[in-house]
């Protein structure tokens, strides 16, 4: 039985990981997991002593840090403010977790984002070798977090993910569910026609994390869909997958959309997962279309369960 301590397990991405792996026995790999996932109210990652006590008592094999301040727009009002919650959680929280992992010699999987980049790389998606250059405060604080994790010296895997979408998550809407719900309700939507993104089904992210926590690997990995789309194509793919009305979808220009945002978006908001696939194999991550087919299957299965 492997023990995994999770911070941020109530969030969009962490909750899916827990759904898939809590107390399951993976027949293929002969492993099962015991997961402890305290809420922020129980273990605040700003509190070093509580983190250390939790790690010492539970004695996990691996710690996964999904915890973050993810309100990208709101973060912009805190720009440069190291006392603000965005810096505190994304940078100092990550540092606290990493230093505790170093102290107790625990492997850390730390989740990060494509927002560490500036979104100007137009010919191919960002790889692990590309130089970060964040354009908004959220991205900047996530980059500080990555740097603190590396500097801590703990055995760490930093996993950058991009546009996670989930069949279910009540607390926060992702782009896929937003498009789906609007189209189902017969409302018109606008989608950017000239931005490139690698939207990723959170089930793929969860499976990728499982593979990484079973390996001895450390370092930086990009985990995303294996091809890219524009948000306009993504909306149309959703309409097609769910047999909904295409004519409700109209294009909007990236610059026009971005102009209204407090936090600048990335025009090329995409990741390249080749390193992950080279080391862990193909078939864990999928194309956007395959990710959406799974999204539909997951929604259909849940609807059937409710009957
Ligand atoms: N969602 C995206 O579009 C996206 C894209 C790229 C990368 N990411 C990255 O993926 C990771 C997970 O994101 P998400 O969308 O799942 O986040 P989320 O839904 O916003 O959830 C944030 C989580 O962080 C926890 N948290 C916040 N402050 C905390 C604190 N002081 N101490 C302990 N826990 C705290 C929250 O716990 P409570 O619920 O208990 O408050 C919650 O579980 C983050 O690292 C994020 O940067 C997300």
UniProtKB/TrEMBL annotation:
Keywords: NADP, Oxidoreductase. It is an enzyme of class 1 (oxidoreductase). Pfam families: RmlD_sub_bind (PF04321). It comes from Candidatus Daviesbacteria bacterium RIFCSPHIGHO2_02_FULL_41_10. PANTHER family: DTDP-4-DEHYDRORHAMNOSE REDUCTASE (PTHR10491), METHIONINE ADENOSYLTRANSFERASE 2 SUBUNIT BETA (PTHR10491:SF4). One of its GO terms (molecular function) is dTDP-4-dehydrorhamnose reductase activity. One of its GO terms (biological process) is dTDP-rhamnose biosynthetic process. It comes from the Bacteria. One of its GO terms (cellular component) is cytosol. Pathway: Carbohydrate biosynthesis; dTDP-L-rhamnose biosynthesis. This is dTDP-4-dehydrorhamnose reductase. Its EC number is 1.1.1.133. Catalyzes the reduction of dTDP-6-deoxy-L-lyxo-4-hexulose to yield dTDP-L-rhamnose. Residues 3-283 form the RmlD-like substrate binding domain. InterPro entries: dTDP_dehydrorham_reduct (IPR005913), NAD(P)-bd_dom_sf (IPR036291), RmlD-like-bd (IPR029903). Belongs to the dTDP-4-dehydrorhamnose reductase family.
């Amino acid at each position: 039985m492997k023990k995994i301590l999770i911070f941020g397990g109530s969030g969009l991405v962490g909750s899916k990981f827990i759904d898939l792996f809590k107390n399951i026995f993976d027949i293929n790999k002969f492993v099962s997991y015991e997961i402890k996932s305290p809420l922020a109210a129980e273990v605040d990652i700003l509190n070093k002593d509580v983190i250390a006590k939790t790690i010492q008592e539970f004695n996990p094999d691996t710690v996964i840090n999904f915890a973050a301040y993810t309100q990208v727009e709101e973060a912009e009002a805190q720009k440069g403010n190291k006392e603000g919650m965005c810096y505190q959680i994304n940078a100092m929280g990550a540092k606290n977790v990493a230093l505790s992992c170093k102290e107790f010699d625990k492997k850390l999987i730390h989740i990060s984002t494509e927002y560490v980049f500036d979104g100007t790389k137009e010919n191919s998606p960002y790889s692990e070798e590309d130089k970060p250059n964040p354009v908004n405060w959220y991205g900047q604080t996530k980059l500080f977090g990555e740097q603190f994790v590396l500097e801590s010296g703990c055995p760490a895997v930093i996993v950058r993910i991009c546009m996670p979408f989930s069949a279910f998550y009540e607390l926060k809407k992702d782009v896929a569910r937003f498009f789906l719900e609007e189209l189902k309700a017969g409302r018109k939507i606008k989608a950017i026609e000239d931005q490139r993104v690698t939207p990723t089904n959170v089930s793929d992210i969860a499976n990728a994390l499982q593979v990484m926590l079973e390996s001895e690997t450390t370092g930086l990995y990009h985990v995303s869909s294996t091809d890219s789309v524009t948000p306009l194509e993504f909306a149309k793919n959703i309409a097609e997958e769910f047999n909904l009305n295409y004519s409700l979808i109209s294009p909007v220009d990236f610059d026009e959309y971005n102009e209204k945002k407090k936090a600048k978006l990335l025009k090329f908001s995409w990741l390249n997962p080749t390193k992950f696939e080279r080391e862990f194999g193909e078939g864990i991550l999928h194309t956007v279309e395959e990710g959406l087919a799974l999204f539909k299957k997951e929604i259909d299965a849940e609807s059937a369960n409710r009957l």
